[in-house]
Specification:
Layout lengths: L10 E5 L1 H9 L4 H13 L5 E5 H7 L4 H10 L7 H7 L25 E3 L12 E4 L27 H4 L2 E6 L4 E13 L2 E8 L24 E3 L9 E4 L8 H4 L16 E5 L4 E15 L15 E13 L5 H59 L15
Antiparallel strand pairs: 1-2, 3-4, 5-6, 6-7, 7-10, 8-9, 9-11, 10-11, 11-12
Length: 396
Amino acid sequence: REMSVGPLTDMVTTINVPVVGSAEFVRGDFFMEWGISDMLSTIEARIFVKKTIGELLFDGYEDTVMDIGSSLDSEDDYFEEEDEVEKDPNKVPMDKFGWFYKRNGTSWSDGDLSMHTGVDDMSLLGKIASWNKRTRTDAFPGDCGLVRGSSDGLFPPGLTSSTDSISIYSTDLCRPLHFTRSTTQDVHGIPVQKFDLAASNFANSSVCAENACYNNNIPSGVQNVTQCKMESPAFVSRPHFHLADPFYKDQFQYGVHAKEGAHDSSFWVEPKSSIPLKVEMRLQLNVLLRKVEGIEYLFKNLPEVMFPVFWFDSVATLPEHMAGSLNMLVMLPNIMQACGIFSVVSSFIIFFLVILCKYKESQTKKEKLSQDRYESSILKNMDYNYKKVPVSESVK
């Protein structure tokens, strides 16, 4: 609570997503548009709703449009819908609307992800192999629909020290996010390489030709995710439309102020182990409001606006008490190498000393033997015959 701006009971006026989503769902079908217009008029629906933050994010709130939609979609009667959701873990809950309603502990939110473990090839460690048992998604055509990149930011050791870019697959965007090398930083004294979210990620085809298959047929800087998971008028950008076309900022008189650094995303990776020590993810969810000719009620003369709903600032950092262990892990190869070199040098020195000692011992023996021979030869040369000399009487 101390890290939050306010309590979850704060009231917020925002987009009524079920109403806007229903209008987009029937776009282009005359009879469906007419039926939705009549239904919205009957229930006196509104484009904007006032709810608590808790209802909008986690608790969810009941909505008449969702009630009608779920009852029409179900083969059984509406009162059995809740049981069906509980029986099928992959089915999106439709009893309430909330951006993160019933996401925790579910499989429908992220799906079934398979990745390489590196057992057969360490260079493939962390690379996503399939998503929901498929290697591509129907959200985008061509190469943009391929499931590729790292799964949850896991990389092979040493990869980030030899590459200028890394990619992480996002199941919420149905596409990989690309990060490019920027600067060298440190986290708790551990040197890391910082990778920033590339400016080309959400660019349209006029800025980045490779993004043509992402169907971003709008001013650059906003990603079209309308076909990802569920059909909805959802678009993703950086917070406050940072690095996006000025068109989006100019839609509003005040409240949109992009700041470099504060609205950027980045991965801080230790280059030798490729372990992320700090992750900063900041993205914004937007809903496109535009008129639908066939829906007389609410949408007939609606101006086109890319309306920001919320943006999140998610930062995860390695705890300081774990920095020592990781630093030891990073230094372990150098320590082992130093120990190896020390062992080799020590062995060489010991071997040299042993040889030297043996040599000196041999020299000592040789010198002693030579000395013995020399003394023996002297004694031989001094082998004289001695005679007794008589003493005369006068001497006495």
